[in-house]
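Feature request, filed as a ticket because there's no other form

It would be nice if the structure record came with a short human-readable summary line next to the tokens. Right now we just get the raw output. Example of a typical job, pasted below so the devs can see what we mean:
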Amino acid sequence: MKRLVTILVGLSLAAPALAGDVYVTRDAEGKPVYTDRPQSLPADKVDVASRSSDPQEVEARYRSEMERYEAEQQAAEQSRAKAAETQRAAEMTAADRAQRCVAARQQYQTTLNHFRIYEELPNGERRYLTSEEIDAARADAKLARDEFCGQQ
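Raw output as currently delivered:
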């Protein structure tokens, strides 16, 4: 990057020294050829307007353009990353929802098919649910199934 700036500054300083007359001639095929030393006559002199460049201005303009390009590139990368993250989240949500649907269906079938339902206590013992608790567990399992699988 420093090398490019150095080249640009060097060219801008050398431009006034190289400025001279410019001529246009035609080659054998009739195409225009621009040169400072015409090979053949007649050659038409071309007015070329030139001005010297301020090296600090050139360097400042170059830096501002590079900063703008970098900012645009970062914004584009952030946009792509956000889109990819949204896509992954949607895929994970769909996969998670399907997995939860399967588990909710199994739990609902278990509560429907078994008459004696229990919960396991922290010490490893079982506590069997009463009829009212079984009915509530079945209702909860149905709600969970409907939530994850829809009204099926």
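Something like this underneath would help us a lot:
The beta strands are 22-26, 32-35, 44-46, 118-120, 126-128.
Helices lie at 2-18, 55-113, 131-149.
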